């Protein structure tokens, strides 16, 4: 498996490096190098000042103390919600017996690598990998430390390896943010029964975005709706590609794409100017630019991932036998502010307003 992961990372790193949330190319950017150094220093010192709440609702009876490394790809509401819920569940269950080493990569592969290397140097008991690039890096870096992913759409696609009956095997498991993609495609038809063409807009370096878009395109074709793919390599290309997509299509679909999440308000402003609706793969992107979504709860999958961590750390569960877990409570929601801005007043039955 190690050799397979080495091949994966050799190709994935080159692709992902061009898709940073800050639009930089880590290998050529002095600011990225500074950010990497700062993140590594911050992560190393955080073990002494970990974010453990003194108001934990219950203390753990476990005698052993645990150190958990938390690697998050970027700061945006969906990933933040998953991380915060994960940590809250561990504090609830383990109390003062758990501490955290935190690292946020800010969309930079080199920083993400330093963060995970720091976890290994500190011999953490478990790693949370929040988003696909963080999972890919952690899976390559260690085969012994348990790695739980969250905000991952499809583990087989992310790791380029077979997943049998929902079990990754080895030292990896976690939770998925996959919502029913057939229902996401159907909601476009529910809002606009006569729609002709939908643009599929995403960052080409995000493997799970490719997976979602391919699935949604297939469902739209079954409904005789044309699709056209519009990809960008990093945030610097979004405006140019977005303008073309909005001009060419009746509506856009955006998957749970991290770079789109970082630029959701920008996408929303372009959509309003063009008078075209956007459908989003999750509600935090929808809040910034979409009219509707069928989204799972990132807080809930964070909590579920925390429960899995407790099973591993305190109860001795074998991660190699743990199946990927899901949030099965996805809900149809609409963004009233965006609908009003686009003059959309006929909301299909069964949708609730985004808070």
Structural description of this entry:
It is elongated and about 60 Å long. By secondary structure, it is of the alpha/beta class. It has 14 helices and 13 strands.
**Helix amount:** 40-55%
Shape: elongated
Binned strand content: 15-25%
User: What kind of oligomer do you see?
Assistant: single chain
The radius of gyration is 20 Å
Mean pLDDT: 86
Number of strands: 13
Instruction: Indicate the structural class.
Output: alpha/beta
Order of helices and strands: HHEHEHEHEHEHEHEHEHHEHEHEEHE
Low-confidence stretches: 1-62
What topology, given as strand order, has the largest sheet? 7-6-8-9-10-12-13
Helix count equals 14
Short description:
This protein is α/β, with parallel strands linked by helices. Helix content is 45%, strand content 18%.
List the keywords.
alpha/beta; 18% strand; 45% helix; 355 residues; single chain; disordered N terminus
Topology:
Blueprint: H1 2-16, H2 30-46, E1 66-72, H3 77-94, E2 98-104, H4 109-121, E3 126-130, H5 132-141, E4 147-152, H6 155-159, E5 172-176, H7 181-191, E6 197-203, H8 207-222, E7 226-232, H9 238-248, E8 251-254, H10 258-262, H11 264-274, E9 278-280, H12 283-289, E10 292-295, H13 298-313, E11 325-326, E12 331-334, H14 336-341, E13 352-353
Parallel strand pairs: 1-2, 1-3, 3-4, 4-5, 5-11, 6-7, 6-8, 8-9, 9-10, 12-13
Antiparallel strand pairs: 10-12
